[in-house]
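Structure tokens please, single chain.
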Amino acid sequence: MGKGDGDSAAGSDSSNGTSDDEWWPDEDEYVRYLHSERAAYAWVMHKYGGLPPTEAKAAAEEFYYYEEPGAYRGLVFHDEPWHWAMVTIKGSDYYTRHRELAHPPDEYGTLDEPDT
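Here you go.
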């Protein structure tokens, strides 16, 4: 959207100069999503990274820390937990060095709240 189409001033907070949190306007939704991402990350860290369940959960909570509302809140969600966990386990070029890990297995896609 360009100037004059109603988008330019929307979402602006004059008290601190930042835009409103357009990605996560609902706190409960953000927290549910954060929990889901942590669970998936912990599952990968346990299954592929070999971490014990408690360490995998702690790693997930450290990586996916709670962010206060703001313009960049949830930016980490732009990639799947699979990707971030693989970067941690195998390095940033995991998808070229380990082509079999370039995409998560079918099991990953069916996880609701993974057991770690």
